[in-house]
Specification:
The protein has about 475 residues and is of the alpha/beta class. It contains 20 helices and five strands. A five-stranded parallel beta sheet has the order 3-2-1-4-5. It starts with a strand and ends with a helix. The structure holds flavin-adenine dinucleotide. The site of flavin-adenine dinucleotide has 28 residues, from helix 9, helix 11, helix 14 and helix 16.
């Protein structure tokens, strides 16, 4: 009997999983599964303890789902990637594995690990690697010169012209095998990594993720464009934590979107298209890290921006992290992140701009802090978002686009509903004054237990423009 091993990594689901599906195609084969935890690697990337918990709980759900189909999940913990290659080679020998199935990961360390593994087992194991975590594989959407796009809009145009109906087709979970129900389930030991509570906002399991997707596409997607920028409104899908660890696939997202809005691929407007556009951003950033692996090493896309003389300002950095900058929309956003592990996209843009352009602090500090808190932490999307905010990335907009945190708040949280939910010190401040609470306090002789702004925006703006200008001149 041949033995097929499915190695789960960033794809913790049994539905629409290409590697799992292929491994199960031969009904005679013995199919086993594996997950390897690498806490040392996670520490290096400062993965959020709540994301580690999210992975752990989904691993438990995956173990059950696989066992019901007659597939036992093996679990091991290694220090780092080099270790995992050695251990996996021995495991394949011990389990007499004939073929290994896995879905590709696109970060540079992961790609190097997989290349080393394929080499190490090449004599005895056939490796089957699948493009699974994107709608279109990296390298398949290129310019006329066969190069990756450096700007999003032409990428999207080319991407959508390549996308066909079959790209949204998703695979069912594999059928139960002969030994279904007879698999011994070993207790999964908690990772040797800090684990933190994930709260109630994100239910565990593929079914929960798919239900959330279904109700979003059915009930909310039409209003997406009007609501997506308002943090006080539940107007986006909140599916990012599931997409980040592969509990949900982008094909399932597109498939469901097309089921509710059949003409979404023919249109270039409306809520459904707006949401599809976000899924394409996700693709763009992943395609980018393959074309420019330096992004995985946190190098700026635009090289001269490395000449910017960032400020060393630990106290202001801490105030930003804690949500105590004195700018209500920034503070509310950071407190949402610290409490829930999720932050609204508009707010991610505002707080990133504030850290880099108002405090002139290196964007890598923000990138790292986000990873340490986010439930949806994802190297490509996070790096892409931070480099966008810092004007060091592929974005077409120049470095002199600087968000004004006060007017951003006025525009996107007009009445201060979101601010008041996260900054209780400001509940008594009237709506019209919520974005400049100290002005109101002074006028009405009130004492506010809320910090004064850590920086004057107008002055900071000038300093930042000068710092970028000087960096450009030095290049
Ligand atoms: P929706 O609006 O419902 O969008 C659907 C899906 O599309 C999301 O779940 C996500 O997978 C994807 N998506 C949406 N916007 C983007 C985007 N701008 N870039 C890439 N993918 C996108 N997203 C992450 O998944 N992980 C991160 O670590 C991350 N860090 C970010 C850091 C910064 C500074 C910025 C500006 C953005 C970051 N984003 C990140 C992108 C975006 O903010 C989140 O994906 C989005 O807020 C998640 O909420 P949602 O699921 O409701 O999104």
């Amino acid at each position: 009997m041949t033995t097929h091993l499915v190695w789960f990594r960033g794809d913790l689901r049994i539905t629409d999983n290409r590697a799992l599906h292929a491994a199960c195609e031969d009904p005679q084969a013995r199919v086993i599964a594996l997950f390897i935890a690498t806490p040392e690697q996670w520490k290096q990337h400062e993965m959020a303890p709540r994301q580690a918990m999210f992975i752990y709980q989904h691993l438990q759900a995956l173990q059950h789902a696989l066992a019901e189909r007659g597939i036992g999940l093996h679990y091991h913990q290694c220090d780092d990637f080099a270790d995992s290659v050695d251990w996996l080679k021995d495991f394949c020998e011990a389990e007499k594995v004939d073929a290994l199935f896995y879905n590709k990961q696109y970060e540079i360390n992961e790609r190097q690990r997989d290349a080393a593994l394929e080499k190490a087992v090449s004599e005895s194991v056939i490796c089957h690697a699948f493009d699974d975590s994107l709608l279109l594989p990296p390298g398949s959407v290129t310019t006329g010169n066969n190069e990756m796009y450096k700007v999003y809009t032409p990428f999207r145009r080319a991407f959508l012209s390549r996308l066909t109906e079959s790209d949204s087709r998703s695979l069912p979970a594999p059928p139960a095998r002969e030994n279904a129900g007879k698999v011994v389930m070993h207790r999964l030991m908690p990772f040797d990594y800090p684990l933190a509570d994930i709260g109630e906002d994100f239910a565990i399991g593929e079914d929960a993720a798919r239900n959330q997707l279904r109700s979003f596409c059915r009930e909310q997607v039409q209003d997406y464009l009007e609501q997506r920028d308002l943090p006080a409104v539940d107007g986006t899908s909140s599916l990012s934590p599931y997409l980040a660890i592969g509990v949900l696939s982008p094909r399932q997202c597109l498939n469901r979107l097309r089921a509710e809005c059949p003409d979404v691929l023919e249109k270039t407007e409306g809520g459904a298209f707006g949401w599809l556009n976000e899924l394409v951003w996700r693709e763009f950033y992943r395609h980018l890290i393959v074309a420019w692996p330096k992004l995985c090493k946190h190098q700026p896309f635009v090289e001269w921006t490395d000449n910017v003389r960032w400020r060393h300002a630990p106290e202001e950095l801490q105030a930003w992290k804690d949500g105590n900058t004195g700018y209500p929309i920034v503070d509310a956003a950071m407190r949402q992140l610290n409490t829930t592990g999720w932050m609204h996209n508009r707010l991610r843009m505002i707080v990133a701009s504030f850290l880099v352009k108002d405090l002139l602090i290196n964007w890598r500090e923000g990138e790292r802090y986000f990873m340490s808190q986010l439930l949806d932490g994802d190297l490509a999307a996070n790096n892409g978002g931070w480099q966008w905010g810092a004007s060091t990335g592929t974005d077409a907009a120049p470095y002199f686009r600087i968000f004004n945190p006060t007017t951003q708040g006025e525009r996107f949280d007009k009445t201060g509903r979101f601010i008041k939910a996260w900054v209780p010190e400001l509940v008594d401040v009237p709506e019209r004054d919520i974005h400049q609470p100290h002005r109101w306090a002074e006028k009405h002789h009130r004492v506010l237990n809320y910090p004064l702004p850590v920086v004057d925006h107008a002055r900071a703006r000038k300093d930042t423009l000068a710092a970028f200008e000087a960096a450009k001149n030095r290049s």
